[in-house]
Amino acid sequence: MARSKRYTAASKKVDEKKLYTLEEAVARVKDGASAKFNESVDIAIRLGVDPKKADQAVRGTVALPHGIGKAVRVLVIAKPPKDEEAKAAGADHAGFQDYLTKIQQGWADIDVIIATPDVMGELGKLGKVLGPRGLMPNPKSGTVTADVAKAVKEVKAGKIEFRVDKAGIVHAQVGKADFDAAKLVDNINAFLGTVMRIKPASSKGQYVKSICLSSTMGPGVHVDRTAAGAH
């Protein structure tokens, strides 16, 4: 696979066989993010779980202390007066039937959907549309709730949702390349701490297999999981 000169130059600054401390890894990711746009910083954690088993399907939410560096577009599916509460709390869109129709017609200019429990019967019918996009609200992630104002404020403040994929890997955006290194470290520690806290009781052996940080266009940097407090 052909690589750009910029990527190749960034790769030379990273030892693929070395496990870096979190602080070292963040520094190298920031140094390697040389695209003309502000690259995202992402984390990938390979877990020692079997995602096919329901009791090992790791998923959760975490409020990153410094957010992810982008405005999150929030849609709240709710009937009056909850739709007005959502708008007052900062939701980008809020309503009921009109938005169900828009979604059914292919509209998807949103990042998160929050819904009240009473509309889930209707919204659930759009599962085939929303599920593959990761937009279906879920009580476990706090996106199905009667307290829509609180949920909107949390998402806008930097609360993100994550779930393990079929390969046993959890992916998440933890900030932007122009963040101060200390803020990226704070966000990553918050994310790692949450993943560690929700370790399934049925998971045996080594829970965190590996941790890798990268920017959108940069090389992966492997983190020493023990130095990062992950076991």
How would you characterize the overall build of this protein?
- The chain folds into two domains: 19-67 and 160-223, 2-Layer Sandwich (Ribulose 1,5 Bisphosphate Carboxylase/Oxygenase), CATH 3.30.190.20; 74-156, 3-Layer(aba) Sandwich (Rossmann fold).
- The protein has a four-stranded antiparallel sheet, covered by helices on one side. Strands 4-3-5 form a three-stranded parallel sheet, with helices on both faces.
- It is of the alpha/beta class and 231 residues long.
- The mean pLDDT is 92.
- The protein is globular and about 55 Å long.
- 30% of the residues lie in helices and 21% in strands.
Q: How many distinct folded domains?
A: 2
What percentage of residues falls in helices of 4 or more residues?
Answer: 25-40%
Number of strands: 9
User: What is the ordering of alpha helices and beta strands?
Assistant: HHEEEHEHEHHHEEHEE
Strand content: 15-25%
**Overall CATH architecture of the largest domain:** 2-Layer Sandwich
CATH superfamily of the largest domain: Ribosomal protein L1/L10, rRNA-binding domain
Q: Return the structural class.
A: alpha/beta
Shape: globular
How large is the count of helical segments? 8
Major β-sheet annotation: 4 strands, antiparallel
* Average pLDDT reading: 92
Question: Numbering strands along the chain, what is their spatial order in the largest sheet?
Answer: 7-1-8-9
Please write the CATH class name of the largest domain. Alpha Beta
Question: End-to-end distance, in Å?
Answer: 34 Å
- The low-confidence runs, each spanning 5 or more residues with pLDDT under 50, are none
Question: Taking Cα atoms only, what radius of gyration do you get, to the nearest Å?
Answer: 19 Å
CATH topology of the largest domain: Ribulose 1,5 Bisphosphate Carboxylase/Oxygenase
